[in-house]
Amino acid sequence: MPTLFDPLALGTLTLPNRILMAPLTRCRAEEGHIPGALMAEHYAQRARAGLLIAEATMVMEGNSAFWREPGIYSEAQITGWQQTTRAVHAAGGRIFLQLWHGGRACHPLLNHGQQPVGASAIAITNDEVHTPEGKKAYVVPRVLEDAELPSIVAGFKQAAIHAQKAGFDGVEVHGANGYLLDQFLRDGTNQRQNSLYGGSIANRARLLLEVIETVCEVWGHDRVGVRISPLNSFNSMQDSDPIGLVTWLAHRLNDYPLAYLHVMRRDMFQQQTGDVLTPIRANYRGILISNMGYGADEATEAIASGAIDAIAFGVPFLANLDLPARFRLGAPLNQADPTTFYSPGRAGYNDYPALSA
Question: What amino acid positions are annotated as catalytic residues?
Answer without folding.
Answer: 179
